[in-house]
Amino acid sequence: MSTENGYSSFRLSPVTAALGAEIDEIDLNSSLSETTKMELRSALNDHLVLFFRDQHIGDEEQLALARCFGEPEIHPIRGALGDMRTLHDIVDTAESEPDRDGWHTDVTYMEIPPAAAVLRCEQTPGAGGDTLWANMHLAYEKLSDGMKHYLRDLKGFHTTEAGFVSYIRRHMPPDAVEKIMNVVGEGASHPIIRTHPETGRKSLFVDQSYLSRIDGLSKDESRYILEFLASRAYDISIQCRFRWTQGAVAVWDERSTQHSGSADHRGNPRSLRRCTVAGERPV
Predict the structure, then answer these.
(1) Could you tell me what percent of the chain has a pLDDT over 70?
(2) Which of the following is catalytic: 47, 92, 106, 194?
(3) What integer pLDDT is reported at residue 2 of this predicted model?
(4) Is-contact 101 260, C-beta < 8 A?
(5) Could you give phi then psi for residue 64, rounded to 5 degrees?
(6) Could you tell me if 156 and 170 are in contact, meaning their C-beta atoms sit under 8 angstroms apart?
(7) Read out DSSP for 79-145?
(8) What gap in Å lies between CA 164 and CA 169, rounded to an integer?
(9) Which residues of 261-271 are buried (b: 16+ CB within 10 A; e: fewer)?
């Protein structure tokens, strides 16, 4: 087995200097040794997003991979509707086109957002449908010292209003919307600058999908600052991009990245299966 990049259980090839790594010489359909699990955790801390090609795993194998990074959790929307499964499908068809592209981190409107996510591809369009990730550690590190100092004690409110509510109302009947809102509530406040619990690195914990205001600032002040902070993810130098192929799997750190689907495959089917790993309260 290759020991390139210091790993004995697999071969790792960085995708960009900013983040992302393709993992080869590993079979996710087989039981993973404790050494492999430890090295995968280390690789995720170092590269933030891991990609595996041609794995063609099933539900049990996907959950086993997720458990390398923590405990798979039930999505709050699914749980509110009585679906206690930890895996669910993301399916785009000609009749159900993707309409949630844009930079974001998952489920930040909850008090305890997920730590990581695992996504596998079961059907890919002939063209388009890529996913992009941005390294929010680098987004923070590229700020001026003055801006870092200003932001260090600020918290932002991640709301379920606006985009979230509009989305579930487009896709759910009124009684389901009521059940969901009773579970997720109005949102949660989290630090603008978050510290990773394992590496100690700081990152910008902001996105354009859920973060609606900065606590203690006026509406206008919040809007100007949040527009600037959310735009940091647009920096191509801190991004990587992944072209999905059937059987591919991606694992990413939700605490340190943002991601965005590229909805340029409208009219062409794409099927992914997803789960998230339980996290901790951001600090």
Answers:
(1) 93
(2) 106
(3) 46
(4) yes
(5) -65, -40
(6) no
(7) HHTT---S-EEEEE-SSS-----SSB-TTTTSSS--SEEEEEEEE--SS---EEEEEHHHHHHTS-H
(8) 9
(9) bebebeebbbb
Please tell me the distance from the alpha carbon of residue 213 to that of residue 158, in angstroms, as a whole number.
8
pLDDT, tens only, 80-96: 888 888 999 888 776 66
Q: How far apart are the first and last CA of the chain?
A: 38
Cα separation, 173 vs 161, whole angstroms: 17
Judge whether 175 counts as a catalytic residue. no
Active site residue 274: yes
Q: Among all chains, which residue has been given the structure tokens 């930040």? A: 108
What integer pLDDT is reported at residue 51 of this predicted model? 98
CA distance 263 to 266: 6
Active site residue 104: yes
Catalytic residue among 41, 67, 241, 274: 274
Residues in the chain: 283
Domains annotated for the chain, with CATH where assigned, are 4-277 (3.60.130.10)
Q: Tell me the per-residue pLDDT of 198-222, one tens digit each, with 9 for 90 and over.
A: 999 999 999 888 899 999 999 999 9
Catalytic residue of the set 47, 259, 265, 270: 259
36 neighbors 44 (Cβ within 8 angstroms): no
Average pLDDT over residues 151-159: 94
5 has a pLDDT exceeding 50: yes
d(CA 262, CA 267): 13
| Annotated active-site residue in 104, 194, 213, 273 | 104
| Average model confidence (pLDDT) across the chain | 91
Strands 155-159 and 187-191: antiparallel
Work out the average pLDDT over 98-124: 88
Res 163 pLDDT > 70: no
Instruction: Please say whether the beta carbons of 214 and 226 come within 8 A.
Output: yes
